[in-house]
């Protein structure tokens, strides 16, 4: 059994070349605080209460990178359980302070599982 702790973030796609417009909308119109730094795939990140919203340009296609990310108590245990059930595990770029992997559900939806390093656990 996988012990889910919380929804950590959601990645939403924006059209290619629209990062500046997305940044203006989410920060100025919605009033979200942008999380500074370099993020995988040139994404921009915003804080919403205790979760994050990640926006990244995507050209489109059959297998989107859009996904929810679930924080789990024991990432190794979750990976082992999913592997035992025949679920394919994939990996992506590293993010400082957290370990992660991805799966796709039977319908092609991407789902991220992550665990923060103890020193980096979000407040």
Question: How would you portray this structure in words?
Answer:
- By secondary structure, the chain is of the alpha/beta class.
- It has a single domain, classed as 2,3-Dihydroxybiphenyl 1,2-Dioxygenase, domain 1.
- Helices cover 17% and strands 37% of the residues.
- It has two helices and seven strands; from the N terminus they run βαββββαββ.
- It has helices spanning 19-29, 75-84; strands spanning 4-14, 33-35, 44-48, 51-57, 67-72, 98-104, 110-116.
- It has a seven-stranded mixed sheet with strand order 2-3-4-1-5-7-6, with helices on one face.
- Strand 2 (33-35) and strand 3 (44-48) form a beta hairpin.
- The longest helix has 11 residues, at 19-29.
- The chain is globular.
- The two termini are 26 Å apart.
- 12% of the residues are buried.
- The mean pLDDT is 88.
Looking at the chains present, what oligomeric state does this protein adopt? single chain
Helix content: 10-25%
- Gyration radius from CA atoms, angstroms: 15 Å
Number of domains: 1
Average of per-residue pLDDT values: 88
What is the CATH superfamily? 2,3-Dihydroxybiphenyl 1,2-Dioxygenase, domain 1
Count of individual beta strands? 7
- By CATH reckoning, the class would read Alpha Beta
Our count of helices gives: 2
CATH architecture: Roll
And the CATH topology?
A: 2,3-Dihydroxybiphenyl 1,2-Dioxygenase, domain 1
Which structural class should the secondary elements be placed in? alpha/beta
Order of strands across the biggest sheet? 2-3-4-1-5-7-6
Shape: globular
Strand content: 35-45%
Order of helices and strands: EHEEEEHEE
Low-confidence stretches: none
């Amino acid at each position: 059994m996988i012990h889910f702790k919380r929804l950590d973030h959601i990645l939403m796609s924006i059209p290619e070349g629209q990062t500046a417009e997305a940044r203006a909308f989410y920060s100025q119109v919605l009033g979200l605080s942008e999380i500074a730094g370099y993020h995988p795939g040139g994404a921009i990140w915003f804080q919403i209460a205790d979760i994050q919203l990640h926006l990244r340009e995507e050209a489109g296609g059959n297998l989107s990178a859009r996904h929810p990310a679930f924080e789990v108590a024991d990432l190794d245990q979750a990976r082992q359980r999913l592997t035992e059930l025949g679920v394919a595990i994939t990996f992506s770029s590293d993010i400082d302070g957290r370990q992660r992997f991805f799966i796709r559900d039977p319908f092609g939806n991407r789902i991220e599982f992550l665990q923060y390093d103890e020193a980096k656990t979000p407040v």
